[in-house]
Amino acid sequence: MRLVLRPLVPVVSVCALAVPLAACGGSEAGDRGATTVAAGAAEPAADTGASTLSPSAFVDRVRSGIGDSGSAHAVLRVTGAMAADGEGDVEYGPGGPEGRFTLSVPAMGTGEITALLVDHTLYVAVPGMTQPGQYFKVDKELLAGLGGPGHAKGMDDHHSMSPEVVLAAIEAGIKKVETLGAETVGGEPVEHFRLTLDPQGAAEALGLADKLDAVTKESGESGVPDSLVADVWLDAEDRLRQFDIEVEGATVHLELSKWGEPVDVEAPAAKDLVPAPFR
Q: Which domain, by its residues, includes 190?
């Protein structure tokens, strides 16, 4: 399994920043005058005279948009040597996140991967590893054994990272925030920000730095980049609408929409579970 995932290491190196941002959801926003950015595209704001915002002020805005609970529809597109397309829905609240996500990675030749997150447990279906309708379970203990974030900072007794820990990691991973002005994404009014990021700082804040270094060394990659630049669009209620980043030749594009819509996901029946193909 690790061999299969090795080409994804450059993308994984920024997940400590992208994923926490993607988890901040809410509902639709009001109107602003704007430059238009088509859905699925990221273009510089028309006004090149960018002003700056402190990382703490930016995180405060993100915090205000999270609320105690919410949901969103996510669309992911990765281009480069390990291209991938994914789509799914996530719901979060005091009991932790739940959701469903499908991912297609043509280079892996496995068809469409399906992941279900229910009651702090991940259920995964991978063509070639599971028969149609079957899933294997990835719980905290198995993830930790594979070198995953099974014992990250802020992980509570229910295996969930607290929102404050995630927000602290976001702030630790931001070096600079530029405000690039009002635009629209998919017809919705948004504000465009450009972030200079420190992936290692975010990983350290989450207690994952050693594990991230170990994965990059094992894979033969050069390591976690010292600095990355990401473009982020927040709606009028400070909820993430779009996130774009390029890392080591791979581009990652994430769109969030359909805020507040119900998410219906159930764990697979016991008869549909099979042993995990790795330990």
A: 2-259
